[in-house]
Design brief:
- The chain is an alpha+beta fold.
- The protein is built from seven helices and eleven strands.
- Helix 2 (101-109) packs antiparallel against helix 3.
- The chain folds into two domains: 10-167, Pnp Oxidase, Chain A (Roll); 174-251, Alpha-Beta Barrel (Split barrel-like), CATH 3.20.180.
- The two termini are 25 Å apart.
- The radius of gyration is 21 Å and the shape is elongated.
- Strands 1, 2, 3, 4, 5, 6, 7 and 8 form an eight-stranded antiparallel β-sheet that branches.
């Protein structure tokens, strides 16, 4: 008998998490300098992209210094932010090429809109596409050439090397899954609670849909020490409609 796949492959899970994550800090490798706050996003290839202003330690960096960028993904549960996962992307800082600057700016604006993004794009265009603006004090768009990714999520931790990380792609149903997840948490939590009570054969409290993907759902329950329960689908969802049906079947479980 063939058993269902219970969760996405690790590289896919980490790429999906990275796509929803926000850079929080960046530090130089091999130095005692403390980490500094970072503003940015993650581009379509999974690379952290950063908006850097004059005075930032990265602003005058040359020769692609080795860095670690901390990424954090969170989920809002009843107005409270809970951490879904933490990633440390280790690699080398590069200037974003002018031809890819707009994509990088869009990735950053999705998490932290900033008028300095327009300044960075204008200066890059004025510089003739050299990757760094010529204007003194002009903001920079930088990205990290990934060497490896250290992850901590759901009680699991490990390392994904650059080849596996960059070759993977986020869950193809991630966008639709997030909308479904938000809808369940907004309007169907009692049904979810009843379904989990039935599945576990015991009462549960503070139940939330925590993760949702084509392979299954992860449900969080408990307040002081929340626990995660993974509920795989009988077969992976091939499209948004089949994922919606799987969620419906879960909520109707008695």
């Amino acid at each position: 008998m063939q058993h269902p796949v219970t969760a996405p492959p690790i590289p896919e899970r980490i790429r999906t998490l990275a796509a929803a994550a926000v850079p929080t800090h960046v530090s130089f490798a091999g130095t005692a300098r403390p980490a500094v706050p970072a503003r940015g996003g993650v581009d379509g290839a999974g690379r952290p992209v950063l908006l850097v202003r004059a005075g930032d330690p990265l602003y005058g960096a040359r020769d692609e210094p080795a860095v670690t960028v901390d990424l954090a993904a969170s989920r809002s549960l009843g107005g409270l932010e809970a951490t879904r996962g933490l990633l440390k992307v280790q690699g080398w800082v590069q200037a974003v090429p002018a031809a890819e600057a707009r994509e990088a700016a869009v990735a950053i604006a999705g998490h932290c809109p900033d008028e300095a993004l327009f300044d960075a794009l204008e200066e890059l265009a004025a510089s003739g596409g050299g990757g760094r603006p010529e204007g003194a004090g002009s903001p920079l768009l930088l990205r990290v050439d990934v060497g490896q990714v250290i992850y901590l999520t759901g009680g699991e931790s490990g390392v994904v090397d650059a080849e596996d990380y960059l070759r993977a792609a986020p869950d193809p149903l991630a966008e639709q899954a997030e909308r479904m997840l938000a809808h369940v948490n907004d309007t169907h939590r009692q049904q979810l609670t009843d379904a989990l009570c039935s599945l576990l054969g015991a009462p549960v409290r503070e139940v939330w849909l925590w993760e949702l993907d084509r392979y299954g759902a992860t449900v969080r329950h408990g307040a002081d020490r929340p626990a995660l329960v993974r509920l795989p689908w009988p077969a992976p969802a091939a499209c948004a409609r089949s994922l919606e049906q799987a969620v419906h079947d879960l909520l109707c479980h008695r």
